[in-house]
Amino acid sequence: MKKLITIAILAAAIGCAPKESTTTTSETTSTTATAATQTVGTAPQSDTAATAATATTATTATTATTTTGTATTTAPPASDKKAVEKEKKVSSNPYEGKIAEIHTEKGEIDIRFFPDVAPNHVKNFIDLANKGFYNGIRFHRVIAGFMIQGGDPNTISGPPSTWGTGGSPNKLKAEFNSVHHARGIVSAARTNDPNSASSQFFICVADAGFLDRQYTVFGAVTKGMDVADKIVEAAKGQELPSNPVRIEKVVIRDAKTPEEKAPTPK
Known about the structure:
The chain is an alpha+beta fold.
């Protein structure tokens, strides 16, 4: 009997002893994740912040660690920065991105400019055109298979014997560059002095690579080479036509099409 009483007392003592905590890692994770979800859900946030909060909650549920999302501002891609810088450069130079519409008796010839390789020649042509300098001037020299040349104010009212000898008061220093004298290239006419270019220019109607780095290329035709060919035909084989085609006016405007905005050929 005494032995039974002793066993009963020991059993009662064990039943009253405090139990060791048995909470598992998974239960702790679940509790932490629930708490984190409730905390994030009560904070006011924008769509961007909400997305960040959702991502944070998912991470918390996995690692059982509560983290605070931090909004970050991403810098624009390098390509966007270059585009903005290029746009600023174009807008700051009044001679960038310009087109000359040369309206002639045979039609219109449009020219884009290369101010990056011949800035002074481009400026000179645009300034003269804006003053109406080229209005009424004729293409006084035409060589089939080579080029058509114009820009001499003597062709407006001077005798034919003086055609090709005139120009504006400006004399430009040579800006020879690497652009090839291909069909459609616009280059500055000059005397034997490399620094004698003025208002006269020529348009190549065929490849003329033998002129490369000896004459200043400053533009190229984007529209109207068929008109240039008509000017050649009108000359009827004469280098100095008896009735040369006249330039009615030159209009300077902003470039519009991708071809007009294309970079200078290399």
